[in-house]
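Hey,
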Amino acid sequence: MRFGVRVIKPLIQIVKPFIDVGGEFFKPFIDVGGVIVEPFIDVGGEFFKPFVDVGGVIVEPFVDVGGEFFKPFVDVGGVVIESFVDVGGVVIESFVDVGGEVVEAFVYGFKPDVHCALQPINF
């Protein structure tokens, strides 16, 4: 299904700070916009809280690795908005740009060719 609108792609990168070195995991420090931060991740598959730079603003996206809702932050024309999607691939609520105007598009029960606002996170 297509709605004739341009999908906003978020300026967001989920990081995986755990690195396998000789079979052991360690958590390095990450440079976000010149600020050294330490992201929190539970290797068992629980919540993790990475720090992301969105348009120069440090925000914390919330992700549930079990497949529930997560709340990324998207920069649309310098304005940070929230976009809600389902990790399973079904769009629940997304923001789209129609002729430069940000509107809310409520879609349910289908998998679009391009996920509105954010691609699912694969671990």
